[in-house]
Amino acid sequence: MVPPTAVELPDHDFIVSKPLPVRRAAPKQKGSTHAYGTEKTEYLMDRNIHKAFPVIIRGKGNYLYTKDGRIILDTTTGAAVSCLGHGDKRVIQAIARQMETGITYLATSFFGNNTVEALCKELINGTDRQMARVYLTGSGSEAMEAAVKLSRQYFYEQDQNTRRVSYIAREGSYHGNTLGALGISGHVARRAPYLPFLMKNVHHVSSCNFYRQRQGRETTDAFVARKAAELDAKFQELGPETVIGFVAEPIVGAALGCVPYVPGYLKAMRKVCHKYGALFILDEVMCGMGRSGTLHAWQAEGVAPDLQTIGKGLGGGYQPIAAVLISKKVFDVFSDGSGQFVHGQTYQGMPIQAAAALEVQKIVREEKLCDNVRIQGDYLGQLLKQLLGNHPNVGDIRGMGLFWGLEFVKDRDTKEPFDPKIGVAQKIQELALSEPHNMTIYPGTGTAGGLSGDHVMLCPAYIVTKEDIHHIAHTTAAVVKEFFSHGL
Questions:
Q1: 179 is a domain residue
Q2: Which of 157, 423, 470, 486 lies most in the core, judged by the most C-beta atoms within 10 Å?
């Protein structure tokens, strides 16, 4: 497979065009502290202040172009964000049209806007009207903060003396970086520095990780029954009347590496929640908006939540936008009660954000890209299992749609993880990004117990072709084999 030109690639065309010439990177210079073609920032506070990164100067389709002349296949679309790839003309033109009106920002406390309303209608229709209203925010973390407040106020509206103050979430989960969202999360390493500040009313049950938690030859039905019993027991332990809701990612992304729900799990968890009058809350910030092969991950089994967060693929990286989808049950309590949500942020419901997201969602719907996600995702899974299924250090290959993860182990039989000090996932990511591979891979840790365990994820754009998938799978396999062949 060859990369496309930066100019001639037609919008939404799945055909690969002629390649640009690639200037090979020069060797690392003597005395240099980082690889040729990477730069350390002087003013930006990076996540890793000691690391240098390739400098990207433009993007087109599935490709990123670096300052030093390389062309990188963006197989992760950032963090599963750029679902239409880079430089989509339709989205750029929609943003430009909105900017030409002079209305890019409006205070939602005072004004409405037709573009914003059109986006919300598009989103509700995308749920087959299983949800009723949309609350727009600027990021997934903000959406989770809003969901936490919405769910609490839902019970407060009905009884200001309500005893419902607790949440049940899952171990190995990640719901965002703000204190409320981080408090809901079960990601050990990310929570650690901030434990004194996090909510004390959040309680965790185990994740839905069939690979690591299956007991003997346990069937998926038995596994689901055990998970439902565990959730029910947690309700009983806390007092059912004190629980606001249960929060879960249908497919756990960065925290566990694309660990999907097993059939029947979502329905069983919702049944337990509703048995006790609690809310069933799904976080689809990373796995939703088409990433799993249906617009919403829950649609594959028809298990609509009471509240749902969405983000990343909502705006495809063209604008910072996320949202909470609100069921009629929840909305009616607000409508019949105070009529107000006691929450708000400056940059929410902006027309410029809505214009971008609306065009992204129209493209996904009109071009039936969820179908392509399913088709190419199935092919990606088949190839990964064919190429790496018997590798001694690949413990599990799992995913749905264009959301796939590889978990690495020291021993396949015992599933023993590598020492986290080795940094397996990060080193595999760095190898993939280097020449001659020139491909992004998303690394993660904490897969086994929160502090140890390595995984990488592949989350390509929805516009990928069969040829693209063939290249992605074979490059991934080559990188993995090369890394482990050198010994640790």
A1: yes
A2: 157
415 and 359 in one domain?
no
Same domain (yes/no): 251, 157 = yes
The domain in which residue 381 lies consists of 38-87+369-485
| Short-list 436, 290, 437, CA closest to 376 | 290
Within-domain flag for 232: yes
Out of 366, 393, 409, a domain closes at: 366
Tokens of 338: 């105070």
CA atoms within 13 A on the CB side of 165: 7
Q: Output the pLDDT for position 171.
A: 96
In sequence order, which residues have a C-beta less than 8 Å from that of residue 66 and are 6 or more positions away? Answer: 37, 54, 55, 56, 57, 72
pTM: 0.92
Residues 463 and 420 in one domain: yes
One domain for residues 117 and 182: yes
Three-state secondary structure call for residue 312: helix
The answer on pLDDT for 43 being more than 60 is yes
Rounded Cα distance between 218 and 208, Å, is 14
For the record, the structure tokens of 56 come out as 């990207």
| DSSP calls for 398-449 | EEETTEEEEEE-SBTTTTBPPPGGG-HHHHHHHHHHSTTT-B--EEEEEEEB
Q: Please name which of 230, 122, 109, 112 lies closest in space to residue 168, comparing C-alpha atoms.
A: 230
Structural domains counted in the chain: 2
Mean pLDDT across 285-297: 98
* The 71-73 sheet, strands edge to edge: 56-60, 63-66, 71-73
Cβ neighbours of residue 371 closer than 8 Å, sequence gap 6 or more: none
How many angstroms separate the CA atoms of 461 and 13, rounded? Answer: 13
* Distance, CA of 154 to CA of 368 (rounded, Å): 36
* β-sheet bridge partners, residue 63: 60, 73
What confidence score (pLDDT) does residue 3 get?
A: 53
User: Looking at the predicted structure, is the pLDDT value of residue 48 above 60?
Assistant: yes
Question: Phi/psi class of residue 186: alpha, beta or left (left: φ > 0; alpha: ψ in -120 to 50)?
Answer: alpha
In this predicted structure, what is the pLDDT of residue 19? 37
pLDDT, averaged across the chain: 92
Q: What is the pLDDT confidence band of residue 351, given thresholds at 50, 70 and 90?
A: very high
Contact yes or no for 455/257 (Cβ under 8 A)? yes
| 369 residue type, one letter | L
> What CATH number corresponds to the domain at position 423?
3.90.1150.10
Decide which of 401 and 6 is more confident. Answer: 401
Structure-token pair, residue 215: 């007991």
State how far the alpha carbon of 277 is from the alpha carbons of 107, 151, 326, in Å. Answer: 35, 12, 16
Cα atoms found within 13 Å of the Cα of residue 39, Cβ hemisphere only = 10
